[in-house]
Every structure is written in structure tokens, then in C-alpha cells.
Amino acid sequence: MRKQFHGTSHHLGQHIIEFSDPDHATGVVYSKNEHETGPEWVIMQMLYWDDYERIDGRWCFRRRLPCYWYATDLNKPPIGGLKMRWPGREPYAGTFHELFPSWDAFWAQRPDKEALPEIAEPAPLEGFLATLRRGAGDPKIRVR
């Protein structure tokens, strides 16, 4: 992995954790990344979908799914489809939005100019992430 990059930095934000029982939880954290890959400076937007488990009193990662929205050279914005654009590779689609069917539903319901947008019902306590997922399975992850 070190040979792929000359330098890398990940900036995290918006960490949400929900508990399913006293020893299990699910979380999501967004990450804006920068990678120096020889002649190109790649920027990336992604999220980590995590499952946690408390084992012997300590919280541990049980699983982590990296879901990507885009990766591209800083000077080549990823307009259009196939937003994963690593140097020396063919572009491909990320899995960032596959994780949340609610994203497609939201963007598919564009109100008319004269109408006010509908606001979704609030998600139940400890059910925000499940509401976003709407029972969807985990996406197949493609790592660089």
C-alpha cells in the first residue's frame, strides 16, 4: 500500500453510531481524502459503514465497508457517471449511494417550481441509519 502513495491524508466528519443492543452497534463516518500518487493529486469522497461489537468490555470493529463516491485528480472534477478515476485505471462507479436507497428516492422526487418539497417523517430514535438503508443489502466493494 505504501508504494501506491507518496503522501495521504484523511479528514473525518459526521460520525453517527446507533446501538442495536448493549454489545452491538452500527456506525457511519464520512471521509474526505487526499492522495499524492506520483504526478497526480487525487481527491476522494467516501464513507465508512461500520459494525462494532463490545468484547470483554472493549468496543472493537467487527466490520468496515469503505463506500466511495468519487476519486479523481484535483484538476479533473468527476462530472458525470463512473466517478472513481484513479491514475492508470479505467473509470468505474463507486458504492457511496448504493448504501442508502433513500438517496435515490429523495432525488427522484423533485417538486415543481411552485410546490414546496415534502419533508420525510423523522426517523425513530436509534433508527436513523436503518431508515436511510431501507433494508438494502451491503454493496459489493471495489477497492482501488
Automatic annotation (TrEMBL):
All copies of the SnoaL-like domain together span: 3-64
Tell me the InterPro entries matching this sequence: NTF2-like_dom_sf, SnoaL-like
Tell me which SUPFAM superfamilies the record gives.
NTF2-like (SSF54427)
Task: Please identify the protein, giving its name as recorded.
Answer: SnoaL-like domain-containing protein
Species lineage: Bacteria, Pseudomonadati, Pseudomonadota, Gammaproteobacteria, Pseudomonadales
